[in-house]
Amino acid sequence: MLHCPKCGRHYSADFEICPDDQSPLQADATVSEPTPLDPLVGHTLDDKYLLEERLGIGGMGTVYRARHLLIDRPVAVKVLNERFVEDDAARTRFRREARAAGRLQHANAVTVTDYGQSQDGYVYLVMELLEGRTLRDVLAKEAPLDAARSVSLMLQISAAVAAAHEAGIIHRDLKPANVFIVQRAEVPAVVKVLDFGIAKLAAEALDEDEPMTLTQVGAMIGTPRYMSPEQCDGAALTPASDVYSLGVILYEMLTGTVPFSGSSPLAIAMKHTSETPRSPRELVSSIPPALEQVVLHTLEKSPEDRPANAAEFREELLATAERLGLEHAAITSSPNMAALRSVGTESPSGRLVIDISRLRENRAAGSEGTELTVVAQSPGVAAGNGPDIPPLQSTASRSFPKLLVPFNGSRKENKQLKVVVAVLAAILLIGATLAVRSLISAPIPQAAATATPSPTVEPSPSPSPTPGPSPNREVRKPAAKPTKESKSSSFVKKVKRIFRNPF
């Protein structure tokens, strides 16, 4: 087990540097005595939440697996670290996180169910218990991700951020470590956006909170590698600042690296404000150009040149994904069984094998109806249209209904079909054999007797007449035909002998 000397977080042996602050990880010191247990493990908060196990340590608090004793339900409890209990700004920020998350009612945002301070002085908030791993862990082992998977995850992340923007909340600390991926069996991955600890609520929702106590003018709050240029400058923030952070996350998912990095937070902040990010396709050439344009649009330096909020960014990303035929987790675009059968083939074992390339082509063409339209191409038009250029349609087009062949046949039905085919083949063979035998057994007509040709008298210089051909010779001359007939009859006998018993 390794830990970061700067933030104190622990990581497995797969990591070499801290993903958040880029500090080299150090091995835990070897001690002869057993490591002391967390004193809060086994503690009960307000006689309701029994802390069973420590899950992780963050910048402001420690997260525990707990159980709600009254309803016997597993939950996650985040307890404010003791060094911040007396810090009014930290306590206000912790309360703000609870309020910000509590206002969100979205499937992709973590659900906060309770907040309070126990009698023994612990400040805590209760959240739903999530099973899975963070996006930071996924990128550390699997980056870069393919385009379809990146789009699927980002659509869910942006949906949660869009809900926050609609509620008047700016997250301000969007990064892979604050994105949790819940993976269950036989269902797509579900994304949860976490940690609204430094979220900024709208002015009318601050109530008793004084904004100057949390964020001073010119202060830089957030994670430098994912901060917008205006956030690095300490300027006023808008929802477009979160859009920039979403673009950095999508950039990292597609390429495996962030647009800007440096030896210090200040060096990274300077690059965000002054340098142009490198083209993602220079790092991974398989990224679609249209998707690259979406990423670069979110990384514009000026907030006015980016999508105004996460909802506009998500609409742009969704339209691009639909045009490219990328499958994703949006409910409206999930392929139904009819679409899968139209691009699948049945294997000998009875399973349906889906052709992903054909499915993407169908989705890109937008063929969601029940008919397949075949359009005749105009003469002289090139066959290779671009992905964004619709094919030229001729005036003569016909629609052919799809033939959906059910793939639920059992092996027993397949055997019955084979038996029927074998019987039909046997009947055809017997019929052909009988026809051949009838032709062979038919009488062969004999050749008609031909008239004996008259003898030809050739003139001879001799006065004595030349005798003509004798009658016996004339009878012997056609005697060659019976020889052929005898050969033919012997051949017929052989054929009869072969076909006497065909089976």
Textual characterization of the structure:
- The chain is elongated, with a radius of gyration of 43 Å.
- The chain is α+β, with helices and mostly antiparallel strands and 503 residues long.
- The model is unreliable at 203-219, 367-409, 447-452 and 469-475 (pLDDT under 50).
- The chain folds into 4 domains: 37-128, Phosphorylase Kinase, domain 1 (2-Layer Sandwich), CATH 3.30.200.20; 132-330, Orthogonal Bundle (Transferase(Phosphotransferase), domain 1); 337-378 and 390-401, no CATH class; 410-438 and 494-503, no CATH class.
- 26% of the residues are buried.
- The protein is 36% helix and 15% strand.
- A hairpin with a 5-residue loop joins strand 15 and strand 16.
- The chain has helices at residues 88-103, 135-142, 147-166, 211-214, 229-232, 239-255, 265-274, 280-283, 289-298, 310-324, 337-342, 356-365, 411-441, 471-476, 480-499; strands spanning 2-3, 10-11, 26-27, 44-45, 49-57, 61-68, 73-80, 112-117, 123-128, 132-134, 169-170, 179-182, 190-193, 200-201, 344-346, 352-354, 371-375, 397-401.
- The strands form 6 sheets. A 6-stranded antiparallel sheet has the order 4-5-6-7-9-8, with helices on one face.
- The protein has 15 helices and 18 strands.
- Helix 9 runs antiparallel to helix 10.
In brief, what are we looking at here?
The protein is 36% helix and 15% strand. It has 503 residues and is α+β, with helices and mostly antiparallel strands.
